[in-house]
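EI: anyone free to look at a 399-residue chain?
SC: sure, send it
EI:
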Amino acid sequence: MTKTKNLYARRYDLDWLRVLAIILVLYFHVGMFFTSWEWHVKNTETSRLIDCILAFLHQWRMPLLLFISGAGTVFASARRNKKQFMAERHKKLLIPLIFSMFVIVPPQIYIEKINEFASYLVFYKTVFELIPYPMGSFSWHHMWFVLYLLLYSVLAVPLIWYLKSENSNRFLSKIEKYFSHKWGFISFVLPMILSQVILRPFFPEETHALIDDWAYFVFYFAFFLGGIVVASSDKLWAILKEQRRFHLGIGLATLVLLEFFMLVPWQSLQPYFKIDVDIIWQLNKIVLAWSWVIAVVGYGQKYLNKNHPWLQRLNEGIYPFYILHQTVIVVLAYPMVNWQAGIAMKFLVLSTISLLVTVGIYWIFVRPFNFMRLLFGMKMKNSVKTVHQQKQVSNLINI
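SC: here you go
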């Protein structure tokens, strides 16, 4: 087994998947403007079709990013000791989180509460009261992902260093043997299901607020841990690639069931089932999330494991892109609420302008300046060239 190779080898497929997944997040959040679900700003007309599409994407888009981030954390630890690793994690994740809570997120909250304040300046003073949202104006909003990622990185340190050691060879050999079986990877949903059976009765809602979000905190942590384990073994990567069609087949079956539940008033089906239909709904979502993540990773190895002249710049900018994108969408969506245009036209205009504005802000105001790069979790300009020349894989570091 060549674990060392995994820690230092470049994985372009993960680079591409991370970039594509975060761009998908932008389109997902544009779609939230048109759904029947609660969001920060809502269009006057909603779309059942967008509800169905986003219900599917919601199950696996963030789990995919967490799986990739778990793998990236292993690569990030390759040339660092524990102290260096933790310092780098806090620099990359904690600084942007704090900065965003005071600068990037407040405009979103202001748009939500715009009728309560005479101006943005009047509103902004309330941020420093540090009263948690929604009662107050202090929140991490979409930066929950960065907070959870920081906590996961800290919690996973013992596992990462164990898997880097020779002591893990026997454990990894057993894992490889087990997951080489057809249903091996899919069976990883069993501990996920167990965690939800235990925690969901106490924490039924996905809040991203941490203190009352323990069911989903543990659920997402499983994907992060999955990425760590897979990144520690060449053979596990190979198995995912070999089994990609099978995993996609499972994913497609769960997609059909999910959309059936979305389109049919499934509560009316209860008389035909001996168990609670809601249990079937919840179990299907868990299997869907895991099967689509491992299928996408498998197909990514097949078709995306190649370099491109754009990839380095995309990798460098995709984290600031994530930090900026939701605020840009909310601010641009607000004046479009009463625009007399169809949903398709609004979606096209809002997504295109949001993409261009987010990239423009990053390119003009973030990328050129080291101080801004620090606030957005980027490497300093004078270190980027050196890191590239040394062929370190820290671009894979999770967002």
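EI: Residues 1-5, 389-398 have pLDDT under 50 and may be disordered.
SC: 👍
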